[in-house]
Specification:
three-stranded antiparallel β-sheet, binds zinc ion
């Protein structure tokens, strides 16, 4: 997973980059996050998460018919990722917002 800092309106923010073309994901609705599972056990062997632009950079994830590959690709819309990440951090959206607000410089 490629994360980048981007400057916008004098503020830095964290954005996703595409693991294939390395460009910034400007529209999360047109991107996926993807991972590989073992074809036999459906376990996630590496636990690595990739992000790809859909329809242009995600071709590798469409190659699941090759049974010579030990692993299968699975994916979900990138727009679902923030909720998954918050869940993994045991945070609610409100807690995350509160912590972000505490980091903002005071005027
Ligand atoms: Zn791309």
């Amino acid at each position: 997973m490629l994360l980048k800092f981007a400057k916008e309106n004098q503020k830095m923010r964290v954005v996703f980059g595409c693991d294939f073309c390395h460009r910034v994901i400007s529209d999360p609705a047109k991107a996926i996050y993807a991972w590989q599972v073992d074809r036999k056990t459906l376990e996630i062997p590496e636990g690595v998460i990739f992000v790809f632009h859909t329809n242009t950079c995600d071709q590798v994830t469409l190659d699941n018919d090759n049974e010579q590959d030990k692993n299968l690709w699975q994916w979900a819309p990138l727009t679902r990722f923030p909720a998954e990440l918050l869940n993994g951090l045991d945070k609610t959206w409100e807690q995350a917002q509160d912590e972000q607000t505490e980091l903002q410089p005071k005027d």
